[in-house]
Amino acid sequence: MGEADQPTGAALQRLARDGLTMPAWSTADIPDQRGRRAIVTGGGSGIGLATARALTAAGAAVTIAARDKAKGAAAVTAIREALPGADIVFERLDLASLASVHAFAAAVRRRGEPLDLLVNNAGVMMLPRRETTADGFERQFATNHLGPFALTALLWPLLAARPGARIVTVASLAHWRGRIAFDDLDASRIYRPYAAYAQSKLANLLFAFELARRAKPDGPLSVAAHPGIAATPLASAGLAGETGLRSRLLIAWYDIVGQDAAGGALPILRASTAPGVGAGAYLGPRGPFGFRGPAGPVRSSALARDRVAAARLWTASEALTGVRFEPGAAG
Ligand SMILES: NC(=O)c1ccc[n+]([C@@H]2O[C@H](COP(=O)([O-])OP(=O)(O)OC[C@H]3O[C@@H](n4cnc5c(N)ncnc54)[C@H](OP(=O)(O)O)[C@@H]3O)[C@@H](O)[C@H]2O)c1
Fold first, then answer.
1. pLDDT of 251-292, one tens digit each?
2. pLDDT digits (tens, 9 = 90+) for 78-98
3. CA distance 239 to 320
4. Which superfamily does CATH assign the domain made up of 31-321 to?
5. Which residues line ligand 1 (CB under 6 A)?
6. CA 259, CA 243: separation in Å to the nearest integer?
7. How far, in Å, from the CA of 5 to the mean position of ligand 1?
């Protein structure tokens, strides 16, 4: 189930038929995670919270990494109450700040703890006005792509030291509408909220697939997943304070069409834990329009599988973040 053998045509029909006859993958299928340590970015709410909860329930030691300490602490408390003895903590990380990414990764490395799973889940969507981060980047591109790129690079030595380690990058159906504006990655000439989001989600897939190609065959596994449509705070967080009809309709649309966060987390959990998932796999809901349905392999756009664009984005990401990332290097 790798990127090279992404299902097409007859294979998709077969998968659809099997999907009808095989029981859907569920959290009951998560293998025993005891002895495994995971970091879930953005685990204080939505899909990240559901992912963190299910991993913890399966026995993993989980760190929720996000900005909001109160939200993170509440998530940890809720999980500990539901799962007495749960090994879960919150640690502050702002992916839109390279200083924060460096500080977080340095603290993790200093502790010398092993790391088996990094779920690059945190994200922001459709910020109505162009915002720039302290590093001077457009906020959606910085939070959704540049921060996770730097974080993965800085944590790579820990992941590479663990057999069976995985990096799961959370993309979106929005990637189908994405284009990488290499001459204006920061959207400084033209800013459109959805185009900037779609670009960042396409960047997620280009990164996840390129990492799968660059990693050693016996190294950590890079895979991607998307949740379909899930009723989470994503839209309301991005559009906070917007009272216009379009914004209110969009927020309502996610609540009406979306499955719950636990359903949206299933492809991410399957990508994170299931045996048989190959490097470069892409998982998502396999129901109508990919909005919801059983978690399994799904297709990505031709642009997401463009190797030239992936290499170009990698070089640009190294230059912008100042973080060199050589996953295949000896050592
Ligand atoms: N919901 C959907 O229908 C849907 C569809 C496709 C893809 N996705 C993807 O799923 C992922 C999770 O989204 P969600 O729907 O679960 O929304 P959500 O509940 O808003 O979760 C996003 C999380 O990201 C964290 N975050 C935002 N900016 C951050 C930053 N600078 N540094 C660190 N953490 C940050 C937030 O926590 P703090 O505020 O504490 O930082 C928040 O908990 C995103 O990547 C999104 O693009 C969602």
1. 888 888 889 999 999 999 999 999 999 999 999 999 999 999
2. 999 999 999 999 999 999 999
3. 27
4. NAD(P)-binding Rossmann-like Domain (3.40.50.720)
5. 41-42, 44-48, 66-68, 71, 93-96, 121-125, 143, 170, 172, 226-227, 229-230, 232-234, 237, 254, 258, 264
6. 24
7. 29
Quick: pLDDT tens for 120-135: 999 999 899 999 999 9
Are 14 and 228 in contact, with CB atoms under 8 Å apart? no
CA atoms of 329 and 319, how far apart (whole Å)? 18
CA–CA gap between residue 288 and residue 34 (Å, rounded): 35
Residues in the chain: 331
Rounded to an integer, what distance in angstroms lies between the CA atom of residue 67 and that of residue 92?
5
191, 194, 197, 254: which one is catalytic?
197
Residue nearest to atom 41 of ligand 1 (CA): 67
**Is this structure's pTM higher than 0.90?**
yes
Return d(Cα 247, Cα 86) in angstroms, integer: 38
